[in-house]
Amino acid sequence: MTETTSAKRIPGLEGLCAAILPPESGGPPSEELAWRVAEIVNRYPPITREGFRALAALVSAAAFASNKGSLAKASPEDRERAIERIASIARLTPMTDAVKALLLLVHGSDSASAELLERSNANPEARPDPILDVTPGTEWPSQTHADVVIVGSGAGGAIVARTLAGAGMDVVIVEEGRRFGVEEFRTRDPIDRFTDLYRDAGATIAIGSPNVVLPIGRGVGGTTLVNSGTCIRPPVAVQEKWRDLAGLEFCDPEIFGKLCDDVEATLEVEPAPLDVLGKNGKTVLAGAKALGWEAHPIARNAPGCAGSCQCAVGCPQNAKAGVHLSVLPVACKDGARIVTDARVERVIEELGIVKGVTVRRADGSRFEISTDRVVIAAGATETPMLLYRSGMAIHRQVGRNLALHPACAVAGLFDEKITAWHGVLQSVVVEEFHKRERILIEATATPPGMGSMALPGFGPRLMGHLERADQVAMLGAMVGDEPSGRVVRGPRPFINYNLSRGDGERLVRAIGHMGRILFAAGAREVYTGIPGADTVKTPEALDEAVGSANPHRLHLAAFHPTGTAGAGSDSERYPVDAQGRLRGYSGAWVADASILPTCPEVNPQISIMALAVGVALGIAPGRVSS
Fold it and tell me: Considering only CA atoms, which of 110, 171, 498, 542 is closest in space to residue 334?
């Protein structure tokens, strides 16, 4: 038996498929779904793969005991009772939800694949793939030299590369992922794109109370490949906090505003046009207007967007101006080179002076690039890991102070069709509670399957909701959170995050705010995501559900990890100084989400890029300080 064949046999999975998405109620054949889910699980890293197998076995065993017989062979009614019963047990709820989420992702993506691919090709490309100087790691020489090595090609790394290459420096960017092209996004199934575009095939989780799903992009362009394209400047109050409390002089609103101007011009940021918003966004606008709440189309870096709603799995038009389309081409034109499928294992230093990097190719072999300047821009979860591996995590705050900008979703069922995935993935922002409560609400749709966890229940009840999925409008809310997490040293990143009491209370209030928007827009029922009160039909019932909600039992996701190598003037508090230099080392800088002193309270791409420009200007020739 081959490893692949073995991995496709997950004990108990077929029974769980039958219980959660019963074929008698219109679900897929359980054996086929179990095979497909196992195929996806086999793409996970070994520890995650075995963890899911154990999780599925545990839930299946609990359901088996509850049903007193084989779950796969039980009657539909017995299966439904068994899965609902174990899902109601607090300690088993997260496990049951995790299995449900993966089943919905696979089934939804596969069942809608033909439609999504048809929509992918319904409009011409907004731009071709640009010319980039890309060399696979397997073809890179064993010994080379560069003026500066940048680790990571995402928002921070790309803009640093553009700045330094434009200043005449010899720049090499080392990227762990590969380059993706628009043809893949127009022809490959969404689920296959999803598992390729995200670290650990999209299975990254912050472990804590509650667990938080944390998808992180990996490839040339980093998470800008798969983000929503939302581009919002951090509030002035946040900029002033970074200036006054962290001591970051280039975060003075006047200076920072000019840095943001540059970034927004580069990314071609403009409000999402009304004609491509889609009905999901227009429904949210109508609900907010009825309540008298401030709301407007989101500013995005997507000129020419046709509303395919596939930002999260790669734009099939190349309309979203991720840094692989907008920033890296300029850097490469000025001489920057990109090495792909190459993981920086360690930064080489002697007596605190940077000498180069050691890089591992995909085939396991290694090469070195000598340099006296390294800019680490691997992201808030991977930058601490590189510092750990390099023996450079000498500051006690490295890996700590992790903020996630946690998010929850609420959906509303309408009498008319919404077809939320026909339009912009993230289309409208509701600002009403942003300044005073640090709650940012956004109309957020997803390709089928990716947002289906908002639909309540299991078995026939869940299938009924799925049949009406085109009548559902969706909202998401994020709260500017306290730094309640950390990235723990180990062979792999272990991300720990425990929701603070205040942040949990604000997430619960956000559910109430989102529900009221949907009711005001005409929803006949609202799916709250609150266990025990997952469906409400009146604003009064919504208030009651919110009043009894336990934040630690919510379904949470996060897309904006920050702060694990914070930058600031206080040497005791911040591992990175106010110019972006790693304390204790000459020739090492950090320029990614790690250095944000606090949660930016908005989607962070503009914040990351503006800060990274500030760091890069201090490295450029004539202004180098070490």
Answer: 171
